[in-house]
Design a protein that fits this description.
Distance between the termini: 27 Å
Protein name: Enoyl-CoA hydratase/isomerase family protein
Structural class: alpha/beta
Number of strands: 11
Largest sheet: 7 strands, mixed
Strand content: 15-25%
Family: Belongs to the enoyl-CoA hydratase/isomerase family.
Number of helices: 10
Radius of gyration: 17 Å
Pfam families: ECH_1
Shape: globular
InterPro entries: ClpP/crotonase-like_dom_sf, Enoyl-CoA_hydra/iso
Length: 259
């Protein structure tokens, strides 16, 4: 089943959700993000499937927010942040394992979505990139809490330096749990779901014990929202996005991408 830019199918009792806008590196507009959160909640009860795999089509997992629809007010920024936050919230509320199958580059908000997943399996083409600090944008998805939880002190250089993190380094520092061939990526993610969820009764309980506490996630959302407000009020957001489009206009073949 395909709805907008999200494909949904059931593969061996696992819901495979595929971001499907390859010509634009699977960037996500607000409607796509709302749909993704709704779909995760639909399957996340465990009544229909044993787990969820999230992946992308083509050479990108996702390039994050669709900057062709740039917020023109702080209210629009709040809406953008709220839709990203809610994907994280939806994933962490599920009663079943959620696996990110990182098939290519994951940028900004899309990279951050993977941080709350229960595992991140990548290919050699997987790459993490957090450009926000150099674009006047603020990180979201509770990544201010989740990034350090996964990679400790590496979080500073990843976020402040906007360093691109290739698959081998991502594996070494803990952004990826394993690397597999592109053609076996989704199959391996489905296999992990079945390995982990042999008894849904106890798996759901362990997910609740091992995942971050909801209050920690909500506190991170609040801090990120406040930082986004300050970025907007200082003019950093507008200047950063303006610089982004200046660079894109110098290379018109490059697709819009970011947060």
């Amino acid at each position: 089943m395909t709805d907008r830019y999200l494909d949904m199918r059931i593969d061996d009792d696992v819901a495979v959700l595929t971001l499907n806008r390859p010509a634009k590196l699977n960037v996500m507009d607000v409607a796509t993000r709302v749909l993704l959160a709704q779909t995760i909640r639909r399957f996340g009860t465990g009544d229909l499937v044993r787990g969820i795999v999230l992946t992308g089509t083509g050479r990108a997992f996702s390039a994050g927010e669709d900057l062709r629809t740039v917020p023109t007010s702080y209210d629009e920024i709040r809406e953008a942040f709220a839709t990203f936050h809610d994907i994280t919230r939806a994933i962490l509320e599920t009663k079943i394992p959620v696996i990110a199958a990182v098939n290519g580059i994951a940028v900004g908000g899309a990279s951050e979505i993977t941080l709350c997943c229960d595992s991140r399996i990548g290919t050699r083409e997987a790459e993490y990139f957090q450009p926000e600090n150099h674009r006047g944008i603020i990180i979201s998805n509770a990544s201010s809490f989740l990034m350090g939880r996964l990679v400790r002190n590496h979080a500073m250089r990843i976020i402040l330096g906007s360093n691109r993190i290739g698959a081998d380094e991502a594996l070494r520092i803990g952004l990826l749990d394993e690397i597999v061939a592109q053609q076996t990526l989704v199959d391996r993610a489905v296999e992990v779901v079945h390995q982990w969820n042999s008894d849904p009764r106890t798996t759901a309980l362990h997910l609740g014990l091992l995942r971050p506490r909801p209050e920690d996630i909500e506190a991170a959302f609040a801090r990120e929202d406040d930082a986004a407000r300050q970025s907007w009020e200082s003019g950093a957001f507008t200047e950063g996005i303006g610089g982004f489009w200046t660079s894109k206009n110098a290379a018109p073949s490059a697709p819009a991408q970011s947060n």
